[in-house]
Design brief:
By secondary structure, the chain is of the alpha+beta class. It has 13 helices and 17 strands. It has one domain: Chorismate synthase, AroC fold (4-Layer Sandwich), CATH 3.60.150.10.
Length: about 400
């Protein structure tokens, strides 16, 4: 049976937060483009920074190790496998043992019991996951539902971003709000990207960043947590990635699903969604004008680069809202797995991880755009894709 959701580029991840390692296997990456562990690790490093991060970021310095699919620094077309080792595994070998353990040994039994979790944390996967999979220890849910899993997605996204860079496509993110503090509006993308990459909050507004840090410090002292909003931008995309012919081929739908799959993301908007809701069509839709160098130009981008489920040649602009992290030193009222009233379990956590969420969102957008790009221009070898891309560009750029 034909499955319209089959993609030329796909990936799977595995691993637990305190397990031995995290893994990814990637299928459909074309042959012939350069990629190194350093290319991936700079994205992993960006995911770990951010004012308000917790103690785990001081333990782990994530590095990806390429295990297959690369020869002499270039992709071969074969599946790529990656491994990220959890340094904290040394302290968890017994509680997270894959093999059976001897519970008659008092020392082993004590180490396991110390890590068993019965108290449910509101806002996490604890309650639903324990009921769904019939577990009497929330540890089995926490370990995989943890945002630690996003490290592998960032590694995969780094490969996707490196592939897209061969065609001049750039993707970046920046923080535009934490709590009630908002960064000022700015549509100079080069300036935003440069400032955000130098900021440990990934915020391009210096004044807002100072206020955000003070708020994070105050919230940390109170044992609470903060959410916020990130903006993700993709530049230099060709027209026509995605399709309107089936619901599951529309690129805006794929992007929204990918961003919403990031832990703690509660909403996604594309383009100027506030203006879309409050204005008539004449004040919202992006008018089209003739241009000397290419077929057309636009003076606005309220659509956020997507029309009819396809890229329209303008930058893709997304915003994602992240909720406050639900693991807090000041725990909420809850129940345990026996249904008795209890306070929520506390596991080491961040006060604010909004900047890191932006890096993960960059990765997910890179993956979706790489999938759409390969579906449009082929996926066997870089040279063939470049030929197809250049021919297509000539059709509407007047080259």
């Amino acid at each position: 049976m034909y499955n319209s959701t089959i993609m030329s580029f796909r990936f799977l991840t595995s691993g637990e937060s305190h397990g031995k390692c995290l893994n990814a296997i990637i299928e459909g990456i074309p042959a012939g483009f350069e990629i190194s562990e350093e290319d991936i690790n700079k994205y992993l490093a960006a995911r770990q920074i951010g004012y308000g991060r917790g103690g785990r970021m001081q333990i782990e310095k994530d590095k990806a190790y390429i295990k297959s699919g690369i020869r002499f620094g270039k992709t071969t077309g074969a599946p790529i496998s990656l491994e990220i080792i959890n340094k904290d595994w040394e302290n968890w070998q017994i509680p997270m043992s894959i093999a059976s353990v001897d519970l008659s040994n008092d020392e082993i039994k004590q180490k396991i019991e110390e890590k068993i979790i019965k108290n449910i944390r509101p806002g996490h996967a604890d309650l639903s996951g324990a009921i769904k999979y019939n577990h009497d220890d929330i540890r089995n849910i926490l370990e995989r539902s943890s945002a630690r899993e996003t490290a592998t997605r960032v590694a995969v996204g780094a490969i996707a971003a490196k592939f897209l860079s061969n065609f001049g496509i750039k993707i970046f993110s920046h923080v535009i709000q934490i709590g009630l503090i908002q960064a000022k509006e700015n549509d100079n993308y080069d300036e935003i990207q440069a400032k955000a990459e130098k900021s440990d909050l990934r915020c391009a507004d210096d004044d807002a960043q100072i206020k955000m840090k003070k708020l994070i410090d105050k919230t940390k002292e109170e044992g609470d947590s903060l959410g916020g909003i990130v903006e993700i931008v993709a530049l230099n995309l060709p027209i026509g990635l995605g399709s309107f012919v089936h619901w599951d081929k529309r690129l805006d739908g794929k992007i929204a699903q990918a961003i919403m799959s990031i832990p703690a993301i509660k909403s996604v908007s594309i383009g100027n969604s506030d203006k879309a809701a409050l204005n008539p069509g004449s004040a919202f839709h992006d008018e089209i004008f003739p241009d000397n160098e290419k077929l057309f130009t636009r003076k606005t981008n309220n659509a956020g680069g997507l029309e009819g489920g396809m890229t329209n040649g303008s930058p893709i602009v997304l915003r994602a809202v992240m909720k406050p992290i639900p693991t807090m030193k000041k725990p909420l009222s809850s129940i345990n797995l026996e249904g008795k009233e209890h306070i929520a379990h506390f596991e080491r956590a961040d006060v604010c991880a909004v900047p890191a969420a932006g890096v993960v969102a960059e990765a997910m957008l890179s993956i979706i755009l790489a999938q759409a790009f390969l579906e449009k221009f082929g996926n066997d070898s870089l040279d063939e894709i470049k030929n197809n891309f250049n021919y297509y560009q000539q059709r509407y750029l007047k080259k």
